[in-house]
Amino acid sequence: MIDDENLESTEAEARAVESRAEAFIGVREARRSEVAEDYVELIAELIHENGEARPVDISARMGVTAPTVAKTLGRLARDGLITRAKYRSVFLTEEGRALAKECRHRHEIVLRFLLSLGLDPETAERDAEGIEHHVSERTLALFAAFAQRS
Amino acid sequence: MIDDENLESTEAEARAVESRAEAFIGVREARRSEVAEDYVELIAELIHENGEARPVDISARMGVTAPTVAKTLGRLARDGLITRAKYRSVFLTEEGRALAKECRHRHEIVLRFLLSLGLDPETAERDAEGIEHHVSERTLALFAAFAQRS
DNA sequence: GATGATTATTAGCCTATGCTAACTTTTTGC
DNA sequence: GCAAAAAGTTAGCATAGGCTAATAATCATC
Ligand SMILES: [Mn+2]
Ligand SMILES: [Mn+2]
Ligand SMILES: [Mn+2]
Ligand SMILES: [Mn+2]
User: Fold this and answer.
1) Whether B141 contacts B105, CB under 8 Å
2) Which residue ranges make up each domain of chain A?
3) Closest approach of chain A CAs to the CA of B85, in angstroms?
4) What residues does the HTH dtxR-type domain cover (chains A, B) (predicted)?
5) B115 alpha carbon to ligand 3 midpoint, in Å?
6) CB proximity list for A78: less than 8 A, separation 6 or greater
C-alpha cells in the first residue's frame, strides 16, 4: 500500500466492487425464479376461475407453444410446485400455492402502485409483469404505502 | 355463439387472453437484452473511470468468472456493441455507446426514484439493477417527474 | 361407440448464460 | 531480460427456456 493513487487499490474501492457484484448476483438469482413465479401465479388464477389449469390455457396466456409449457411444467413438478398426471390438468402443491399467493400479492401491489402513479392500465400491467420479480420487501412496503396514501 | 356461458367463449375474454400474452411476450423480449445492457453500461463506466475496460474488472464487478465474461463479450462483439482484440481491453462501438448512455440514463432515474421514495441506498442500488430493464418509457417519465417533485 | 377436432406429449433442435480445467499471453518486479 | 504473477482464452460441460414436427390421448358430437 505504498501508492494509494493506484487504480483499484483502496479498501473502499474493493468494498464498492464487492457490493456491486452482490447486486448483480442478486439480480441473477431473482431471474432464476421469474418463469416459475409467473406460472404458479397463472395456474392459481386458472384454478380459481375454471376449477383447473389446462396446459392449453397456460399456453394461450403465456404466449408460448404447448411444448414449452410441457417442459416448464416438468421443471415445476420436479421442484415440488405442482402435481400432474399425463394428459391431465395441473394442480398446485402446498408449496406452489404458497408461492402463488406471495406472487399474486406482489403483483397486485406493484400494479396498484403503478396505477396510482398515473400510468395507463395497459402499460401498468405490462411493466408490473416484469418489475414484480425485482422488488425487494422494503421496496414493496414503500410501494404499498404510497398506493395507500394516494 | 349459442351458449355464452361457456368458459372462454366471449370476444372480450379472447382479447384479455391476447393482451395478457402480449405482456409476457414483451417481458421475455426485455429479458433478452438485460445482460447486454448491464455489460455496456459497466464498460462505459470503466472506460470513463480508467480509460479502458478490462475483462478482469468486468468480471469482478459483475460477479461472474472470466470465461463467462469472455463468452458474453463475444456476443456483444457479434452484435456490434463492442470491438476487441485478443488479450486487449474492450471498447464500445458507436452503437454500444448509444446503448450505454440510454442504460445509464434509465438506471439513474430508477435509482433516484427509489431513493426519493425513502429506500436505503444499498437496497435501492440492488433493486434498480433489476427493475431498470422492465420500465417502459411512460413509467420512466413518471419516475423522473416524481423524483424531481420530491 | 366411431370419428374428427382438440389437447397433450415426445423427440430433437437452438441460443443464452453460467461453470471448471487447461493453456497462452501479457505484465510486473527484480 | 527473465521468472513469476496476473490476465485472457479455449474447450467442454450444464441448465433454462424457447421452437417445430411428429405422435398420442382425450373429448365432443353424431
Ligand atoms: Mn411476471
Ligand atoms: Mn405476475
Ligand atoms: Mn441491470
Ligand atoms: Mn444498471
Assistant:
1) no
2) 11-149
3) 23
4) 32-93
5) 16
6) none
Angle, in degrees to the nearest 10, between helices A11-31 and B121-131: 50
Q: For B107-150, what is each residue's pLDDT tens digit?
A: 999 999 999 999 999 999 999 999 999 999 999 999 999 999 98
User: Kindly report the CA angle at A104 between A103 and A108, in degrees rounded to 5?
Assistant: 115
Residue A6 has pLDDT above 60, yes or no: no
Best residue in A10, A19, A20 for a mutation probing chain B (most B CBs within 10 Å):
A20
Nearest to B63 among A21, A30, A50 (CB): A21
pTM of full prediction above 0.90: yes
Q: Measure in Å the smallest separation between the Cα of B5 and chain A Cα atoms.
A: 12
Which range has the top average pLDDT, A3-12, A35-44, B12-21?
A: A35-44
pLDDT tens digits, one per residue of B77-94: 999 999 999 999 999 999
Q: Are A62 and A53 in contact (CB under 8 A)?
A: no
Interface mutation vs chain A, best among B5, B139, B149, most A CBs within 10 Å: B139
**Strand B90-92 with A90-92, pairing:** unpaired
Fold category of A11-149 in CATH: Arc Repressor Mutant, subunit A (1.10.10)
